[in-house]
Amino acid sequence: MSLVELIAEADERGLTAGGLACLDRCVSLLGGDDEILRPLWAALADGSDPDDWATRLEQVRIKLTPTDATGTAEAAEGEAAILARRMLEGAPADRSASGVRAWADDCSVAALLVHQLLNASTADPSSADAYREGRTEGIPPLVAAELRRQTTVLELLAGHGSGGLRQAMAVSTEGRRVLRAVVSRRARGRA
Q: What's the pLDDT at 92?
């Protein structure tokens, strides 16, 4: 099943976890640490009051608000950070299926584009849509790994419901480490 089909069939929890996992893998581009999104994962896991999600989301946004507009990152990291910022800013306070469906879809595309930029791929940005539809010929390795992670997260939530959240978080953590290593390697290459 393609990623587009998985998103179309996902319920509110799966969609929220899918979007949150994409953001989680890219959060280091915003200066966030490994724990910054933990309150949002917890709100999703414990099925807390929807207003609690909105409150926690606002707290995360405040913590990740840039305090210094000057940056020395190379263009790819800058573009990638802009995409990650859009994921965070686009997160809906309303966790209804209709509220999170568009966000999960946007996060999916943005995360693939982030990985494509950092892979230094010459692929057209519109190729992310083709990859999500299952047309993966010529997909760069970093993008292929991100596509697998997105698919795995949605399959875990579809197959295990809230019980799949812990595994989804582990998939996301692995992806965050990979992305952080790529950014670090690129920085060392510039030094």
A: 95
Please give the pLDDT value at position 69. 47
What kind and span of H or E run contains 48? none
State the pTM of this model.
Answer: 0.90
Identify whether the C-beta of residue 27 lies closer than 8 Å to the C-beta of residue 173.
Answer: no
**Element containing residue 24 per DSSP (H, E):** helix 12-26
Residue with tokens 């295990």: 160
The DSSP letter of residue 135 is: -
Count of Cβ atoms closer than 10 Å to residue 186 Cβ: 15
Average pLDDT of the residues in 117-142: 85
Token pair 């979007």 is at which residue? 19
63 in helix, strand or coil?
Answer: helix
> For the chain, what is the mean pLDDT?
88
Could you say which DSSP state residue 91 is in? Answer: -
Q: Per the structure block, which two tokens stand in for 114?
A: 């982030």
CA distance 14 to 33: 23
Residue-wise pLDDT for 32-81, tens only, equals 888 999 999 998 887 667 678 999 999 999 999 876 544 444 455 789 99
Query: What's the CA gap between 189 and 39, in Å, rounded?
Result: 35
Residue 7's contacts (CB-CB under 8 Å, 6 or more residues apart) are 15, 18, 101, 104, 105, 108, 154
